[in-house]
Amino acid sequence: MEFFKYEAAGNDFIMLDRFSGGNETTPDEARRLCARRTGVGADGVIEMLPSDSCDLKMRILNADGSEAQMCGNGARALFLFALDRGVLDSDEATVETLSGARRVSRAKTQHRGQAPVLRFSVDMGVPKYRRADIPMEGQPTEEAVSIELPLESRDPVTVTCVSMGNPHCVVFVQDVNGYPVQNVGPLLETHRFFPERTNVEFVEILDDGNLEARVWERGVGETLACGTGACASVVAASVNGLIPKRASVFLPGGALVVDWTEDGVLLTGPARHVFDGKTVH
Predict the structure, then answer these.
(1) Binding-site residues for substrate, please?
(2) Catalytic site residues?
(3) Which of 44, 57, 195, 269 is the most exposed place for a label (fewest CB within 10 A)?
(4) What does the DSSP assignment read for 97-110?
(5) Known binding residues
């Protein structure tokens, strides 16, 4: 099977071209492909499919085989993949996802030394933070802002929860690099308050326009970046009065820019083609 490896701010994906047909990837196949030591290795598998309502359809399977509703970094990588494959030849496109249609467009190219860094923007939709929208147990219409969450064998944590088409639980910390993400992340991901599990962001406020974050992704574990997680972090920080509605989010894999307006959230960041290959089975 032919595959194509792409990354966006360190979030890496195995891209499969299903535009002209082919069988859907099964959860077991996704787990085998994403395995770092015995497979290709990736945070997830993205299938490029035809759409009846948009220019493209994106199907995303996490490293554990579960299907994700939306992925901001993945949408940017998919747009570049479609350009590289000749499926698209325009500066913007609409992408069908389980969270609805998303518009992706070229952004201004930056340079790292002499090398150009291709950047793309994704319309991430309107964020929601009522408990029912996450979903999160409790009063459905209550905003899930600054809520104390009990944890087994640890002190409770204060969280703000946001839906970016997928669930996010944001924790503000004083020292994100020293925080026990590997311990607290899985406790929050599988917390009984989240019936569909949740992504978890640990966020340190650097100043008015800058955040530093680490992400524990649902079905993956800690990743170098998460586009929807960066958006959720800025929304959560803004509704708590900690920052304005535009900020840069610094993740281990690179920086993403998030702009929250009346129309929704715009995510801008890089995407890159890494290599191609073929599996033997």
Answers:
(1) 11, 62, 72-73, 166, 199, 217-218, 227-228
(2) 71, 226
(3) 195
(4) ETTEEEEEEE---E
(5) 11, 62, 72-73, 166, 199, 217-218, 227-228
